[in-house]
Amino acid sequence: MSKLSKPKRINKRDYCRVLATETLPYETPIIFSNEGLYNNVSRLRQATGVKKVILDGVITGEAAPKFSPTNPHSFKIRKNSLEFRRLALIHPTSQWRIKNFYEKYENLILHFCALSSASIRAPKRVAATFYTKTSWENINKYKNGSVAGTETDRYTKYSPSFFAYRGHDRLYKFFDSRDFLDLEKTYGFLWTLDVSKCFDSIYTHCMSWAVKDKEFTKAHVDIDSTFGQAFDTVMRHANHNETNGIVIGPEVSRIFSEIIFQAVDRRAFARLNHSYKLVFGSDYEIRRYVDDVFIFAKNEVSAKTVYECYSDTLITFNLHTNVAKSVRLSRPFFTKKSRITRDISAKANEFFDKFIEDVDGVSRVVPKKIFYPWKLTRSFIDVVKAVCSYNDVTYDDVSSYLISAFTERVKKLANTSLDPGDTEAIENYRDSSLVLLDVLFFLYSVAPAVSSSYKLATSIIVLLRFSERNLGDYKETVKQRIYDLANSFLSQRKDDGQAAVEGFTWLEASNVLLAIRELGSNYLLPESTVKSLFDDGRAFSYFDIVCGLFYVRKEPVYRSLRRSLVKAADTKLRNLSNIFTDSEKAHLFLDMLTCPYIYHTQRRRWVERLYDQMRLGKPSESELAEFIACTTEDYWFVNWTEVDLLNSLEKKELKRAY
User: Fold this and answer.
1) Which DSSP state fits 280?
2) Cα-based distances in Å from 315 to 98, 194, 195, 497
3) What is the pLDDT of residues 118-175, one digit of tens each?
4) C-beta separation of 255 from 92 below 8 A
5) Which residues contact residue 97 at a Cβ distance below 8 angstroms, ignoring those fewer than 6 apart?
6) Do 58 and 92 form a contact (C-beta atoms < 8 A)?
7) Under 8 Å between Cβ of 11 and 17
8) At 11, is the pLDDT very low, low, confident or very high (cuts 50, 70, 90)?
9) How far apart are CA 249 and CA 76, in angstroms?
């Protein structure tokens, strides 16, 4: 496990930071972020001309013709080989309202998230510092720039969340904690409780019930100045005024649900004490990670009582237990997943020891001589197969963990500078790089996942830049292997990787495509392969268009595909009557205005259409020319010209707070 760096300072009063940490889902294309939005709203008061019109109309909503709830851009990604997750990209205007809500109610958010001792992931204060993994600092030399323009900007914008949290940022850390061992010493039984389709089922008015008594809320339903009703309103504004369900993905949704679940905790504890004489901390204890509930009890009767009482309390908030996913354990508390993780971790370490030697145990490793690279690769793949077969699990259960472990080894391997004259060392680094790539792509191909795509992309880019600097002529060997492996994955998966699901976004493929763009113009994929990743017979989505344009750029070989992508964007932006409420249209509009691969005349037409919708006179030629000239710097969600994907990937890892 990587150690943490020294703490980085954060500007606690910078509420625009909410836009960088609280309002986006984690699973998005590598090139997508709110960095540009943050930069633009931070300079809101200095904006003039076309920029001011856009900010007032599409971002803050102050100059929009009509104030209405917004419609998020919903998209689906694979959860596993059979299931999907539905995520939401909130309209910029709703994101702005969430930022204002945090600014006004930050203290009450903290208050209502501090009322239950059962929660092991809850805000405790506004973040003042944050930590990064030292493994990222080890590879800073391979970055094209800092994570942000300045160190101050970096620490201001890219902390994992607006709040600092108590407890654990990942559930597996709870199972490895002293608290879990102490609970196992005290209690002989562990029952788990799973809430069925939690975020989809949350009734937004429950927020008022959670922070006030339900009878009080119903008697004062017209009062909209309370915290609960204000939070309810801002969440409904982001979700087309829906009361059933909240948007899935952004951190603000987890905070919304946390407040509701803390109310469930408190009411369940009170009922158990009053009606069943079961005392929290004595007869039983509960640990809850967002909507995952773990019940520890001294006997099965108590565990059953707590389970039933908690389930019944959930119903009062219109939430229900998924009985099929509940697990009942007696000591020792060792799940099948824990056993598999331990087994596969030991096998991975044995594999690494065969061709990699630790230097200091933390930041750097040195490769050994590999006599038969393919034999070594195949031996580990066979081991993985054996572990999966023995435990009756699929690759889905081990792939993400292994890809993460291999990526950390890649960072350590690249944390060196080689002597150009040391031929033997260079050959060892070449061979070890190829073995790592072969295994990484195998693990990813058999069980692709969006979270793993960020790890694989990190390994690709680090090894590319490392080989460019250190491997001399062998750099082309590494490049060719990356190209061949990626091309094989994308070509073979194009027929079965797409899903017959409305709104599906194939991020597992898009992120690999974006990462291998770093190979340069000499290693471009066939146009048919690139097109197949986005074109499945349905209209191009926002993510399809920006990822496609980022890859094809102005390369002549992709002329036809580029025209199709621009045409698809223009079709979506032909009618801007709903740009003030439609999230996909707002995001697409802003990114197309700054895209250097689209003619200025087309971008000017889109600006003029916005002015028409805002009932404004057309901007002057000088205003348009000034705006277009600044678009390469004043980007919104995709930095088309100066993006360093390694920086983007570090930000992704920082933000993985759930």
Assistant:
1) B
2) 28, 13, 10, 38
3) 999 999 998 877 666 666 666 777 776 544 444 434 444 456 788 989 988 888 889 9
4) no
5) 61, 234, 237, 238
6) yes
7) yes
8) confident
9) 11
Q: Residues in the chain, how many?
A: 658
Question: 10 Å Cβ neighbour count for 596?
Answer: 14
Residue 468 contacts residue 430 (beta carbons within 8 Å): no
Task: Give the residue carrying structure tokens 């995709």.
Answer: 638
Whether residue 345 contacts residue 401, with contact meaning beta carbons closer than 8 Å, is answered with yes
Give the residue among 143, 163, 161 at the shortest CA–CA distance from 649: 143
Q: Indicate the residue type of 340.
A: I
Do 506 and 525 form a contact (C-beta atoms < 8 A)? no
Distances (CA, A) of 443 to 46, 459, 498: 49, 13, 19
User: What per-residue string of b and e applies to 550-566 under the rule 16 or more CB within 10 Å gives b?
Assistant: bbbeeeeebeebbebbb
d(CA 236, CA 71): 10
pLDDT tens sequence across 590-649: 999 999 999 999 999 999 999 999 999 999 999 999 898 888 778 999 999 877 888 888
Rounded CA-CA distance 157/17 in Å is: 5
The tokens of 543 are what? 């993510």
Query: Phi first, then psi: what are they for 361, rounded to 5°?
Result: 80, -5
Give the integer Cα–Cα distance in Å for 152 and 483: 37
Pairwise CA distance, residues 609 & 62, whole Å: 18
Cα dihedral across residues 614, 615, 618, 623: positive or negative: negative
Residue 329 banded pLDDT, cuts 50, 70, 90: very high
Helices (H), 471-541: 475-493, 507-516, 527-534
What is the rounded CA–CA span in Å between residue 433 and residue 425? 12
Give alpha helix (H) positions in 517-599.
527-534, 542-552, 559-573, 583-593
Helix axis angle for 559-573 and 527-534, nearest 10°, is 20
Q: What's the CA gap between 603 and 624, in Å, rounded? A: 9
Long-range contacts of 79-83 (CB under 8 A, 24+ apart): 80/396, 80/449, 81/394, 81/396, 81/447
Q: Are 447 and 400 in contact (CB under 8 A)?
A: yes
